[in-house]
Amino acid sequence: MIKSLASFVKLVNKNNVFLEQVRYASQALPQLSSEKYNIHRKDFGRIESSDVDYFRSVLGQDRVLTEESDVLPYNVDWIKNCRGQSKAVLKPKSTEEVSTILKYCNERKLAVCPQGGNTGLVGGSVPVFDEIVISFSLMNKIIDLDDLSGALVCEAGCVLENLDNYVRERGLIMPLDLGAKGTCHIGGNASTNAGGLRLLRYGNLHGSILGVEAVKADGTVIDCLRSLKKDNTGYHLKHLFIGSEGTLGLVTKVAIHCPVLPKSVNLGFFGVKNFENVLKLYKSAKSKLGEILSAFEMADFDSINFTAKNLKLPNPISDYPFYVLVETHGSEETHDGEKLTRFLTNEMESGLILDGTVTSEPAKMQTIWNLRESIAAAGLVGGYVFKYDVSIPLKNYYDLVPILKKRLGDKATKVFGYGHVGDGNIHINVTVPQYTKEVSSMLEPFIFEEVSKLNGSISAEHGIGFRKPKYIHYSKDQSALGLMKDLKQLMDPNGILNPYKVLPDHI
Ligand code: FAD
Ligand code: MLT
Ligand code: ZN
């Protein structure tokens, strides 16, 4: 058991400070998802020793894990909310192997759960019952980089940070960046349509991903792996796999457009009096920084204070009700510096910025980004966190935080809000000493009803996964859900791909 917990910790983290804290939190494994959420197993086949023999004949002995302690890390999600009961993990190394495995599983009606870096936040990446985990961790080859067009072609299991390091050496960057970059896979990013810290500037993955190769439930390989910017030949099938969370096919390769590495990068971290001023500052940043604005993030006092304290991270400025992080990516240091100075001078005079720091030194920028990116991890320390990632029109962006504080009273340790203002996406986290059904039912469906009243989306970037299918109707109408069901039926008639996820039972 100790060995398995240790390997779990190793799997989810690379930062030493954080590692110790998650080790502590992981002493208690979450309750089985099927019991916690009262789910009934669907009528799939059950894995037998003859199946394991078959998988071993395809993949070899070492790439089929069946020891309980080896399989455990693949059964538990990052926030320790969900726990599945898989008995086997398969680690293919090629598209052909994925295809062979899926064809067999489909014929035997064995359900599967595709898994990338297992950093997903909605329980989509881990099984619920005994679904076979298909891990992409060994499909991590970079296939091609065209440094003129910026098209990178790689296998689905490449870790985002490794790709970023690779393309940076060649004058490019990955078009997405997120706190989980050291662990998440590009195939997982594609399958969740991950947003992240610079979507404001580089757009979402439906735009950046040029092509995908994916395998359907019956083993058919769908080759849409084009690297062209423009390709209007019929239906845009790649979009079916982007954001479908492993329910329509397994992504095996990705072609993605990498923007040019910015020559000049600046980062500002500011204290702001109230949320109204955060919005005014955003408006000003858009107009004064224009094309060089690459991120506009906000965090309230509790987000930053809680993170700094729990993870012992430095906050470079003193306490303020709200914090704003403004980043610029440009090609001309002097020009960018002048623009930023003008923005800063104006907004310090206007009082929108109360205090702050601006830097272009990589180490200092890293300290600030680290504080922002660690908010997710801080929520795990010493308790349980209910996480929401909603889109709300900007004028109401922060409304739900005070509403939830009032509703929960002392039942919550903290309720805090932070997120990607530029994308209208707020993360609301509610921390509690431990998961209870009482708090859960005070939050859900209440929060989704409120989001829906505000014309928002119940998931801006993390997806629906296992945690939200029964709430999807708050953001998708019946006709859209009907079409989703038809597509699922067409592409995966036996329903073996990531069951219990995304689609609600009754449509
Ligand atoms: P997993 O967690 O392994 O899987 C996610 C989903 O995709 C599952 O449904 C899984 O079945 C499916 N899947 C994985 N690989 C494949 C494949 N090859 N083919 C088909 N289906 C597949 N998300 C954001 O959008 N923005 C953020 O800013 C952000 N920040 C985060 C910060 C932290 C610290 C953490 C822990 C998570 C964050 N996330 C964020 C959520 C998460 O990292 C992303 O959803 C990420 O894209 C998941 O990638 P992964 O490889 O870990 O996928
Ligand atoms: C973030 O923006 O930090 C991520 O989406 C993770 C989170 O919601 O905490
Ligand atoms: Zn986010």
Automatic annotation (TrEMBL):
Its main location: other. Gene3D superfamilies: 3.30.465.10, 3.30.70.2190, 3.30.70.2740, Uridine Diphospho-n-acetylenolpyruvylglucosamine Reductase, domain 2 (3.30.43.10), Vanillyl-alcohol Oxidase, Chain A, domain 4 (1.10.45.10). Keywords: FAD, Flavoprotein, Oxidoreductase, Peroxisome. One of its GO terms (cellular component) is mitochondrion. Signal peptide: none annotated. InterPro entries: FAD-bd_oxidored_4_C, FAD-bd_PCMH, FAD-bd_PCMH-like_sf, FAD-bd_PCMH_sub1, FAD-bd_PCMH_sub2, FAD-linked_Oxase-like_C, FAD-oxidored/transferase_4, Oxid_FAD_bind_N. One of its GO terms (molecular function) is (R)-2-hydroxyglutarate dehydrogenase activity. It catalyses: (R)-malate + A = oxaloacetate + AH2. Its cofactor is FAD. Residues 82-261 form the FAD-binding PCMH-type domain. Pfam families: FAD-oxidase_C, FAD_binding_4. It is an enzyme of class 1 (oxidoreductase). Belongs to the FAD-binding oxidoreductase/transferase type 4 family. This is D-2-hydroxyglutarate dehydrogenase, mitochondrial. It comes from Spodoptera litura (Asian cotton leafworm). The gene is LOC111349619.
